[in-house]
UniProtKB/TrEMBL annotation:
It comes from Solibacillus faecavium. Pfam families: Methyltrans_SAM, PUA_3. This is Class I SAM-dependent rRNA methyltransferase. GO terms for biological process: methylation. Residues 5-90 form the PUA domain. It comes from the Bacteria. Keywords: Methyltransferase, RNA-binding, rRNA processing, S-adenosyl-L-methionine, Transferase.
Length: 398
């Protein structure tokens, strides 16, 4: 039997929770410190003991758990999870029917009613990511519910909840057919190779789908494209398929080289005609400036935080400098695709970073497009702070 804990919530938090705010914040709880087991059900009440919501306890960086239901009598069981997953899958009916795209998110955590849990679809295979021990304690019910709600070819999982948010290394296979990797998936007609059992990453960030399409369809033809922090080169593939005159992919990780070669190859692109560099992006900026190299399009999609032997980089602090370095090697009237997935600031704040960089460089600019999370990455209604992705496509005006 799962433990139930009653917690009193302060007045301000009651208003937010009643309006649909999904996260249970630590400082919203009035009850004196009690030790609570991960996965315990939380019965949230006001000062008179009146019911507010039911949640689960799962500590993660921002809160102590998530709201699951606002109906006092609702049971949190297989039926509950199956209904949530089925409703989420129905919302993505167009993706399931698409002949151009076979990789997308079918369940986006709090946006679909269960914070701390995401489920991605890869050509019949499902990948479940768990973001706290609390939600992971429901795995038996959730896997049963997944089987009930959708047809799974095979299921893999990622455990992302150890003490400092790092991926927990394990065999990620759960059930069903074992995948033959790399598995080839489609995205807007492009091919991408993914591996669901190879550490924390799969080979593609699904939240950038619309941005890759924009790069391919509107900004690549006969252009030179620099893809920084390129990971497996997905943006470079999009640019090459959009008719780029040439692509350069730069990433510090050694495995980015074979992975990028693989992505070009599954699209029938001669990787030898593309430039792939394994080096620190900031060193590459200096190298390109020394050599007088300039690009028509520069893609900037850095990790929120990175540390190398020589430096630490944080988007919240260093994005203006990153943009300024990119500007120095961008052609007149060139385009910069500036992106961040740092959830600690919003789009308005991100645009101040852009403004600062261009002012410091004494250069004018025009915003051509803005993107946030694509439609399969549902976010809670009324709470835009959960829409972590911010992408601004900027034209440099000289």
């Amino acid at each position: 039997m799962r433990k139930k804990v009653e917690l009193q919530v302060d007045a301000k938090a009651i208003k937010d929770l009643t309006n649909g705010y999904p996260l249970i914040l630590k400082d919203a709880i009035v009850t004196n410190e009690v030790s609570i087991e991960e996965g315990s059900l939380l019965h949230l009440v006001d000062k008179n003991g009146g019911y507010i919501a039911t949640g689960y306890y799962g500590a993660q960086n921002k809160g102590i758990g998530w709201v699951l239901s606002r109906k006092e009598k609702e049971l949190i069981d297989v039926k509950f999870f199956a209904k949530k997953i089925r409703e989420a899958a129905e919302k993505r009916a167009d993706f399931f029917a698409s002949e151009q795209t076979s990789a997308f998110r079918i369940f986006n955590g709090e946006g679909d009613g269960i914070g701390g849990l995401t489920i991605d679809f890869f050509n019949g295979f499902y990948m479940v990511s768990w973001y706290s021990e609390g939600i992971y304690s429901f795995r038996k019910e959730i896997y049963e519910a997944l089987k009930e709600a959708v047809n799974t070819r095979g299921v893999y999982e990622k455990l992302r909840f150890n003490t400092n948010g790092q991926y927990i290394d394990q065999d990620d296979y759960v059930s069903g057919e074992k995948g033959e990797f790399p598995l080839i998936v489609q995205e807007n007609g492009m091919n991408f190779a993914v591996d669901l059992n190879d550490g924390a990453m799969t080979g593609i960030f699904l939240d950038q789908r619309n941005v890759r399409k924009a790069l391919r369809d509107s900004y690549s033809l006969e252009k030179t494209v620099l893809n920084t922090f390129s990971y497996t080169g997905a943006f470079s593939v999009a640019a090459a398929l959009g008719g780029a005159a040439g692509t350069t992919s730069v990433d510090l990780a050694k495995r980015s080289l074979p992975k990028t070669i693989e992505q070009f190859s599954v699209n029938g692109i001669d990787f030898e005609s593309q430039d792939i560099k394994v080096m620190n992006v900031f060193d590459y900026f200096s190298y390109a400036a020394r050599k007088g190299l300039k690009f028509d399009v520069v893609v900037l999609d850095p990790p929120s935080f990175a540390r190398t032997k020589k430096m630490t980089f944080s988007t919240a602090k260093d994005y203006p400098k990153l943009l300024k370095d990119a500007l120095a090697i961008t052609n007149d009237n060139g385009v910069i695709i500036a992106s961040t997935n740092n959830a600690s600031f919003n789009m308005k704040k991100f645009k101040t970073f852009i403004d600062k960089a261009f002012k410091d460089a004494g250069t004018r600019y025009k915003i051509l497009e803005e993107h946030q999370l694509p439609e399969d990455f549902t976010v809670p209604h009324n709470f835009p702070e959960f829409n972590y992705l911010k992408v601004v496509i900027i034209q440099v005006i000289n």
